[in-house]
Amino acid sequence: MPKTNEVAVHRARFVDFQQGNITALAFSHVSNSEKLTPSDLRLAVGRSDGQIEIWNPRNSWFQELTIPNGFDRSIEGLVWCNEPNEPLRLFSIGGSTVVTEWDISTGLPLKNYDCNAGVIWSIAINRSQTRLAVGCDNGSVVLIDISGGKGYLEHVALLQKQESRVLTITWKNDQFVIGGCADGRIRIWEADSSSTQTGSKQFYGRLLHTMKVDKSKKESTLVWSVLYLPLKDQIVTGDSTGAVKFWDFKYATLVQSFKTHSADVLCLTTNASNNSVFSAGVDRKIYQMKLETKSKTVSWAVTANRLFHNNDIRSIASFESKGADLLVSGGVEKKIVVCNLSNFENCIYNKLSIVPSNVPVLINEDQRLVCSWKEQVVKIWYVGQSDAAAGATAAAAASEDKNYKLVCKLSLKDQENITHCALSPDGQVLVVGRLTTTKVFFLQPQNDKLKVTKLENKFLLVTGSKLVDFVDNSKICLITPEDEIFTVDLEEDHQESFELPELSNAYITSTTAAMKLPHLEKLHLLRASSNGAVVARPCGTVEYIDFETKQVTTLIKLMSFITAISFLPNRKTIILTTAENKIFEFDTPTTENAEAASFQTRWSFQNSEYLPRSFVTQKDKCLGIFEDQNNRVWFWGVSWLCNFNLNYDIPNNRKKPKKRSHDGLTINDASSFLQNDQEEKEEDEIMELEKSVHMLSKVRDDRGEVKLSADGESTFFITEKFKPILCAGKLSENEIGIVEVPILKSTASFHLPKYDT
Predict the structure, then answer these.
(1) Are strands 735-740 and 8-12 parallel, antiparallel or unpaired?
(2) Among positive and negative, which fits the CA dihedral 7, 628, 624, 401?
(3) How far is Cα 520 from Cα 539, in angstroms, rounded to an integer?
(4) How large is the greatest C-alpha to C-alpha distance in the chain, in angstroms?
(5) What are the backbone dihedrals phi and psi of residue 329, each rounded to the nearest 5 degrees, phi first?
(6) In angstroms, rounded to a whole number, what is the distance separating the alpha carbons of residues 216 and 680?
(7) Which residue among 267, 478, 602, 716 is the one 20 to 30 A from 389 at the CA level?
(8) Mean pLDDT, to the nearest integer, of 89-110?
(9) Which CATH superfamily is domain 22-352 in?
(10) How far is Cα 648 from Cα 708, in angstroms, rounded to an integer?
């Protein structure tokens, strides 16, 4: 690069970012290898810090939604309820007597149901999706009716009690509940009063069978995991001795036993045909057991094991369909691992990023501040100037020892987690948003620290915010959990707030995904400027709101999730990136161009479909965008950092990039936006549907005149030197800051003996 393009880079690793351990994984749908992948398929991930994440397995996986929880709470179990023609419902348990149903569209608890039977250890849903069974620490199993729809949880029955903790639980269809207990026993209860399988209704709620696993010589045996195989009518158990056992359900007898693991087996899962079972636990390995036929006899055999994790595996889940073949696992390592079900022994695998999509860090250029937040704590650091910024070469960037200082630590008293923070452009006002309240603080430099003063605002105190951004140094724009948009002038004596016009429902409401997942219509990105705000929805709709005219303009309706969006003040444009790693740029709507057929800029029209392959094929999505000097724009993801010079076009020396080759670790079909009656259409018809709803002007194969750099200036630059990146942004005109995740501290993994070779 020419010298004028050199920048000093500060690599900051002082932000103590920590994610909770993965404690629960649950797919929203049951495997069915005869059908296409549902458009509304999602993976729910529960963590030990109480956070719930919703992941979309398409486009090499991306995090679609994060639901924060409160102080000192955890998620120990997750269950989806998926009824036809009804929105998906999500339930969780977490070290209490309460089952929580979540409102996915707002991120708030919809209902907390107290089962009044002891601390809940396990949860499961029946086949018809009408009842929950929860196992408690006092030996109780409680049945809860959820058939009444959203927010409906009612007590049905308390099954026959026994004295041991019910550590794990599952159903056989709608008739029986199977529990694994802390005394080394597997118990089966009759759970359907209308069942005739046991011959009499008098057995309803009764304990029908008890099976016992092998005892440990040193300590009591715990049955950590139970799995029912409906196509084989067998029960699979994993216990604290490391054994995986197969039981005949009808006769309650042991069929086969494998001492596969070196420590506790914590989780089990199976494929759609029930001929493969996967087990995992404390010894970090995932074992596969297959049903094999030899000499006219059918039996289970251990066929493979893989070591993907560096620590305990707490949960494992699987999903199989015509377009998906997924096995996911997670635990103390904090990362989700994705691999193949059908080709488990030889498959490649992928570890998903631990950095959340709603990045909990921001960089303030004016005061050279780095602000981070986690749970109820906000921390702010000051970053000093580097030698490179003072005139040295860029190679000497930010190498000083501890060229930073913690200048502010703010701990909030109440127990609700922070959802979003914003700093004013001058770095003097901090806004802390939570789902039920928003607070404002004035930051005043004092003796190398920042003195924090709370600013009273009655409106904000009773108004929750999921997104907030500064319009200028004294005015903010915020979005509530219910998607109301307000602007608030913090300097007004009367503390007036102005609600912006309600946005139109621009989503294609007839799609399955929109009906099943209401959060797709909610706003998830906000950026504000002095003239207006731009907002985006998970469904791909981007809208601009003019503060003066209160006019709402739809910029585009994409077929992809928007991962990042930003204003470019120097170019007076709006730029965004998608989950497909595409970049689109739009002119900011004004009264002069309000009637334009398309707001897409010339650069975007010429280059959005011709981006460099090294950018398009990145698996980690773009999480942030910021503008540099001379029309250079920076984009960053967890594992990469790049910039584009928007003065010039991408060299047209190759064809339009093809989609990624299918590696079996993601879903590449186009069924995300199919109508209910279009599931069986061929790929060419699917592509026609996608084109028909695309609001972009037609991208021509002939790009016309291409403007290339003539002075050797780089058009595109990308590096993977910095990772994992938590945040990146400008610190000054010729400095950028890159906040990297420090080496994560974790519990020592299970000791495995090492042998000399």
Answers:
(1) parallel
(2) positive
(3) 5
(4) 88
(5) -145, 160
(6) 53
(7) 716
(8) 94
(9) YVTN repeat-like/Quinoprotein amine dehydrogenase (2.130.10.10)
(10) 5
Domain borders along the chain are 22-352
Mean pLDDT of the chain: 86
Strands (E), 516-639: 525-528, 532-536, 541-546, 552-557, 562-568, 573-578, 583-587, 622-627, 632-637
CA atoms within 13 A on the CB side of 256: 13
Q: What is the pLDDT of residues 303-346, one digit of tens each?
A: 999 999 999 999 999 999 988 999 999 999 999 999 999 999 99
Q: Which of 136-140, 225-229, 337-341, 513-517 has the lowest mean pLDDT?
A: 513-517
DSSP-based three-state secondary structure for 72: coil
Query: Residue type for 151, please?
Result: G
Handedness of CA 136, 138, 140, 143 (dihedral sign): negative
Positive or negative: CA dihedral 638, 643, 644, 647: positive
Give the number of C-alpha atoms closer than 13 A to the C-alpha of residue 669, restricted to the C-beta side: 23
255 vs 236: CA distance, rounded Å? 10
The tokens for 574 are 């709006």
Cα 506 to Cα 514, 552, 556, 582, 636, distances in angstroms: 11, 12, 10, 21, 29
Can you tell me the distance from the alpha carbon of 430 to that of 492, in angstroms, rounded to the nearest whole number? 17
What single-letter amino acid sits at 677? Answer: D
Q: Give the least confident one: 196-210, 361-375, 594-608.
A: 196-210
Q: Give the whole-angstrom CA distance, residue 264 versus residue 266.
A: 6
**What is the token pair recorded at 315?**
């949960």
Report the chain's C-alpha Rg in angstroms.
27
The token pair that represents 83 in the structure block: 């009824």
**Dist CA 178 CA 146 (whole Å):** 19
Tokens of 718: 């990308």
Lateral strand order in the sheet of 562-568: 562-568, 573-578, 583-587
Contact at 8 Å (CB) between 437 and 461? yes
> Cα–Cα distance between 607 and 644 in angstroms, integer?
11
Nearest CA-CA partner of 367 in 400, 405, 411: 405
Q: For residue 643, give both structure tokens.
A: 């910039």
Mean pLDDT within 365-385: 94
Q: What is the DSSP string of 450-481?
A: EEEEEEP-HHHHT---SEEEESSSSEEEEE-T
* Per-residue confidence (pLDDT) for residue 671, from 0 to 100: 47
Extract the runs of DSSP E, i.e. beta strands, from 159-273: 166-172, 176-181, 185-190, 207-212, 223-229, 234-239, 243-248, 253-259, 265-270
